[in-house]
């Protein structure tokens, strides 16, 4: 989305009557108490998110746990001279947010590289960005990789010939912000040994020209042929970057995360941060694994889970499966029931990337289920979601009903016949609804390439909820990065989009709604990022709601978000993030943009980027190139019929 318009809108909203920060102090009471609270928060609106929808005004905490929830008067008996008191002054207190699909360690490593900022850019601009970064490199070497991260893949086309303009001596790689796309020069192809004779790896594609030669465009698992050659950062460097990312995530009110592709190295980093006492966040990992039907791999996963089985903050109870790719043109590796269209109303023979035979997927999912793992599946296309549900049904038939909290993530297109199967199979719908709006990704890079009736199934959150599915929320960070905001996709901003399905930031999409029938409510979204996410992460007995006996993980917002319009959610500030009864983020002195280290490393960009800012995020971390403004005004890119309805409530 246009960052300038976004910021002007945000600034205007921020100026609308923000509630003043409360005072943190110590207070006394004449009432004798046997076991006083260490922390009391009072005078606010406490949305407990418990089963009864209880609304309170105050909470008392002793150590890590909640000891009382109720009225201000009810807290008096828990206060003595040592009790810390937070006067909420009408602000809102919620359970700490839970991001159930995110990549903290992987995302942090992107902060160390030359960045295109997620913008919709032509290849010549990307080339200039790379050249600017090369010129600024204090220690260039001929064997040093030139990397540009956060490249927006929507409608972007580049070849090895294009990237040879950056260097023919040094290997060059452009890494898509979606995590599914990369472009390399001829030097990188040569180092990786990629030729016309190189077969596509399982789960990936090497794009080839009419003669069968690699073009330099690598999709999904094919990227690993090249990225495996890039020297990694040191452990200490990665740990430092991960710490900065954790601080950024905490600033959004998030107290627990599900790392949705956690390598063993990432688990080492989380463990080291916990040992240092700086993690201060609950981490649930779905482990990275791309080896199917291998006993040694199953043993490795089981051993890694056992290593963290009794860890206070970290668990490794899940395994991630990439079942397809992404849907946007020109990548189009998401597996679809109906073939992609050619952009001019005609069907092609491309059904996307069907990465598993059904029998293989069935056996893989059933084995993981039998071993007690949560199966967390990346699924963009409707064909893939159907196949994954079939595999989960097969697992249930073979293993019986388990409580493994299986999840299907993203769900960009779902066939209506599969809506009720989520509830029937007990599968959570893990969605990233910050993406559910008319923009370059949905209107320009998807709509012309889908049959119209299938496009009306985009991000079907409302239909899934109506069919009884449990909605879980996640950001998929670092998929969304703005030049002036390293993490724009938050529980609050995602809620603003999910409630409206509109784009008020870019004038070319004004008046459009992305499938209005799929809107959800604020209550739905708050549940998705609290109690529902806690259930998905097997944390619901400890967090996710504000109830006596649970851990004291909270977020304090600057105002009552039930009393504002959906788009005003974009201006709401996180005042405090509280983890285990400790304030781990305090924004009451001044609003936070981003940790300074992240701003200086990740967001400092060449002038070539700043002259052409014009897009939102890419999608899903897991012809000729055309600038977005040109594509968006073309008749073929405009909505037709009921695909994009005028504004109206769900």
Describe the structure.
- The chain has 650 residues and is an alpha/beta fold.
- It has a domain at 3-96 and 546-586: Urease, subunit C, domain 1 (Roll), CATH 2.30.40.
- The chain is built from 21 helices and 27 strands.
- The strands form five sheets. Strands 9-16-17-18-19-20-21-22 form an eight-stranded parallel β-sheet.
- A hairpin with a 5-residue loop joins strand 14 and strand 15 (214-220).
- The chain is globular.
User: Which regions are unreliable across 5 or more consecutive residues at pLDDT < 50?
Assistant: 2-9, 11-29, 591-650
By CATH, the topology of the domain at 3-96 and 546-586 is: Urease, subunit C, domain 1
Mean pLDDT across all residues, rounded? 88
At the first level of CATH, what is the class of the domain at 3-96 and 546-586? Mainly Beta
Quick one: biggest sheet? 8 strands, parallel
Number of strands: 27
Helix content: 25-40%
The side-by-side strand order for the widest beta sheet comes to 9-16-17-18-19-20-21-22
- The CATH architecture of the domain at 3-96 and 546-586 can be named as Roll
CATH superfamily of the domain at 3-96 and 546-586: Urease, subunit C, domain 1
Class from secondary-structure proportions: alpha/beta
Q: What's the layout of helices and strands?
A:
Elements: H1 3-14, E1 24-26, E2 39-42, E3 45-47, E4 55-56, E5 58-62, E6 65-70, E7 84-87, E8 92-95, E9 97-102, H2 104-110, E10 114-115, H3 123-136, E11 146-151, H4 160-163, E12 172-176, E13 181-184, H5 186-192, E14 204-208, E15 214-220, H6 224-227, H7 235-250, E16 254-262, H8 264-276, E17 282-288, H9 295-307, E18 314-322, H10 358-370, E19 374-379, H11 382-399, E20 407-410, H12 419-425, E21 428-431, H13 440-444, H14 452-455, H15 461-466, E22 471-473, H16 491-500, E23 513-514, H17 522-528, H18 531-536, E24 554-557, E25 574-579, E26 582-586, H19 596-602, H20 607-610, H21 628-632, E27 644-645
Parallel strand pairs: 2-7, 3-8, 9-16, 10-11, 11-12, 16-17, 17-18, 18-19, 19-20, 20-21, 21-22
Antiparallel strand pairs: 1-7, 2-5, 3-4, 5-6, 8-24, 12-13, 13-15, 14-15, 23-27, 24-25, 25-26
Helix pairs in contact: 2-7, 7-8, 10-11
């Amino acid at each position: 989305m246009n960052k300038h318009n976004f910021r002007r809108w945000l600034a205007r909203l921020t100026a609308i009557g923000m509630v003043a920060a409360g005072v943190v102090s110590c207070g006394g009471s004449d009432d004798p108490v046997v076991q006083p609270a260490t922390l009391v928060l009072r005078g606010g609106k406490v949305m407990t998110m418990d089963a009864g929808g209880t609304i309170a005004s105050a909470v008392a905490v002793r150590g890590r746990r909640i000891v009382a929830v109720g009225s201000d008067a009810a807290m008096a008996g828990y206060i003595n001279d040592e009790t810390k008191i937070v006067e909420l002054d009408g602000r809102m207190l919620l359970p700490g947010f839970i991001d159930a699909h995110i990549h903290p360690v992987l995302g942090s490593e992107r902060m160390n590289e030359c960045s295109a900022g997620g913008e919709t850019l032509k290849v010549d601009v990307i080339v200039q960005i790379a050249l600017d970064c090369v010129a600024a490199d204090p220690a260039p070497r001929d064997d040093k990789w030139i990397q540009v991260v956060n490249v927006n893949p929507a409608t972007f086309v580049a070849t090895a010939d294009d990237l040879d303009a950056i260097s023919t001596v040094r290997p060059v790689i452009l890494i898509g912000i979606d995590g599914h796309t990369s472009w390399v020069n001829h030097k990188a192809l040569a180092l990786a040994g990629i030729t016309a004779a190189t077969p596509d790896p399982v789960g990936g594609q090497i794009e080839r020209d009419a003669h069968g030669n690699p073009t330099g465009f690598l999709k999904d698992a094919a990227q690993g042929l090249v990225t495996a050659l890039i020297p990694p950062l040191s452990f200490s460097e990665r740990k430092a970057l991960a710490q900065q990312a954790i601080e950024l995530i905490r600033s959004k009110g998030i107290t627990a995360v599900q790392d949705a592709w956690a390598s063993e190295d990432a688990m080492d980093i989380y463990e080291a941060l916990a040992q240092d006492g700086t993690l201060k966040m609950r981490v649930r990992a779905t482990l990275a694994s791309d080896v199917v039907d291998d006993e040694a791999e199953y043993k490795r996963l089981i051993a890694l889970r056992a290593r963290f089985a009794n860890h206070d903050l970290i668990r490794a109870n899940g395994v991630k499966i990439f079942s397809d790719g992404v849907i946007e043109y020109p990548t189009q590796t998401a597996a679809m029931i109906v073939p992609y269209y050619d952009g001019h109303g005609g069907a092609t023979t491309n059904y996307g990337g069907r990465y598993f035979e059904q029998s293989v997927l069935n056996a893989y999912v059933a084995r993981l289920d039998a071993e007690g793992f949560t199966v967390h599946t990346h699924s963009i296309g409707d064909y893939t979601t159907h196949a994954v549900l079939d595999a989960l049904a097969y697992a249930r038939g073979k293993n019986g009903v388990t409580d493994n909290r299986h999840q299907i993530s993203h769900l960009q297109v779902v066939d209506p016949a599969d809506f009720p199967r989520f509830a029937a199979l007990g599968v959570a719908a893990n969605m990233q609804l910050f993406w559910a709006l008319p923009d370059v990704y949905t209107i320009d890079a998807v709509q012309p390439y889908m049959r119209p009736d299938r496009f009306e199934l985009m991000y079907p959150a409302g239909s899934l909820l109506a069919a009884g599915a449990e909605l879980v929320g996640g950001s998929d960070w670092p998929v969304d990065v703005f030049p002036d905001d390293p993490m724009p996709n938050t529980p609050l901003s995602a809620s603003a989009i999910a409630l409206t399905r509109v784009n008020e930031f870019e004038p070319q999409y004004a008046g459009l709604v992305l499938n209005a029938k799929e809107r959800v409510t604020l209550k739905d979204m708050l549940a998705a990022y609290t109690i529902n996410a806690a259930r998905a992460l097997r944390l619901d007995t400890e967090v996710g709601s504000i109830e006596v006996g649970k851990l004291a993980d909270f977020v304090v917002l600057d105002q009552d978000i039930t009393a504002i319009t959906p788009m005003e959610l974009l201006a709401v500030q996180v005042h405090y993030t509280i983890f285990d009864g400790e304030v781990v983020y305090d924004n009451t002195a001044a609003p936070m943009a981003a940790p300074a280290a992240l701003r200086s490393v990740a967001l400092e960009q060449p002038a070539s980027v700043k002259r052409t800012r014009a897009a939102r995020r890419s999608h899903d971390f897991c012809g000729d190139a055309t600038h977005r403004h040109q594509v968006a005004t073309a008749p073929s890119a405009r909505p037709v019929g009921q695909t994009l309805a005028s504004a109206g409530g769900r």
